[in-house]
Amino acid sequence: MGRPALDLSLLTPDEKLELIGELWDSLDDNDVTLTPEQQTELQSRLDRIARDGVSGRTWLEVETRLRER
Q: What is the torsional sign of CA 35, 37, 38, 40?
């Protein structure tokens, strides 16, 4: 006999996000297959980072800016 299904409607949004994180973290690199288009885009982004370095803002910078609005 299988395990009973988890009633997701009983979880709070924070609990749902935590569950999503745990599920994501449980995946191995080999569990996720990229489409050819995704592989091309990923390689393009990695090439740009190698060429130009990391750019952008940290989450803390973005969050602070949004809260200041």
A: positive
